[in-house]
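Protein modeling request. Please complete all fields; requests missing the sequence field cannot be processed.
Requester role: graduate student
Desired output: 3D structure, token encoding
Chains: 1
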Amino acid sequence: MTFRSVLKLLPVLLLAPVFILSSQTLDAPWPWPINSDFGPRNEGSWFHRGIDYLGPNGATILSIENGNVDRIDYSGGWYIAVDNGAGRRWTYLHIFNDNPNPSAGNWQLLEGARLVHPTTNEAVDSNVIVLWSTPGTVASKILSRHLHRGRWLEIDGNTVIDASGNTVLTRGSVIARESIATVGTSGGVGAHLHLGLNQRADNPLLHLRHPPDDNPVITIEQGLGNVHAAEFDCPVTIRVHLNSTAGLDSDKLEMLVFKEGDASQPVTLSSDATFCYGGRDNEGPSPNAETQRPADQTRVEPIGTTPGSDRFIYIGNLSSLEGQVEAGGNSLAVIATDVNDHAVTVTQGFNVTIYYIVSLKIIDNNMNKLKYHKYWDESQGDYVLAQEEVDGKMVDINYPISGYPKRATAFVEFNTSLRSRDMPRLKMIGQEVELKPTAGAHVYSTDLPFDVTIDTDACPMAIAIKAQGCP
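Delivered output (471 residues):
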């Protein structure tokens, strides 16, 4: 099946690229490039809960939108957090540097500054960001927590004034595109701005306009190839490379399987075959992405230090496919979805081999005569699925054996030749024997395991296939 025909079959999952830009209503008010995206990475913390912009040291940071100053504090570096009051809390991290009361140009962050209420004279100590006209005495702006707005800043017993000689009161709110701080190195990092959203839980690109990655490249580096249903429980490895360096907005990658020609009910390999960065509202990261895992587990591997290039590795089994796929061609589908719900899909075919019993014949060796013949008609849908019998169950056959002779041979025909590592077996009267290949195509035989005449109307017989371990 071609990819074009698959698209016709998956009207929901395999949509042609569609941009859902309704959530992107804001602009990043700076021209700096992104040098670290949201999600796993190879430098700094493993799971990056934000976006890093490569702004130069000392460059002015502008507020993305109106809001109240929620905090000015230190955690991994100095930051200022602005809450818009409608579900978005922006964190601007790594501002200034790690010096006491750090400054950059006319900007300064004062730690534990004394803020005095103008009418009650109540004083509190709180961090503030000051834009000085004359350092230490004259300022044009003092930003504080919204809780501490409307107070004056007192330094060495003197009140900070503006250029007109009036007392400057602290401001606890900002407007969009207002200067609020400078790019710095606090936290012991190279100069850049880390932008976080909602306690660093969401991807800022959920709301910030950015170049859409309209054609991220999905490469299935290691797919499924030929799969035997008798080995659905055996370990498999799937490797997928996702290049989203244009948009840097990846959020989820899923690995699914569907029957060739019937994509209406895709089968999820396992919960571990879905990788999620959790960059959207009310969506947390999946364990296989949030935690750096060893090489023998399902994991994400960021490639180098270039943002937007990741390898997704699933290590598990295909037990979820049992009874869900048919013999012959099926498809592995990989769906990559960005934080704005734009999905791109790539498929790769793979073949499933399922063993069926076609017929059973029993020959009386004394008389060289056919004594019993049963045929499973595929067109009637009553093939016996031998792959269902791998876990100790066997295909039960009610064999009429009243007064049957001691010497007989059973011939079992399968739909295809078995591999040398498969073990077809026949069980009868408490004994189990191996079926061995014959000159006939797909036919295996054994002498029946009894040496006396059975005086009963029917004798239970069973047939099964068991693979010798996993490849």
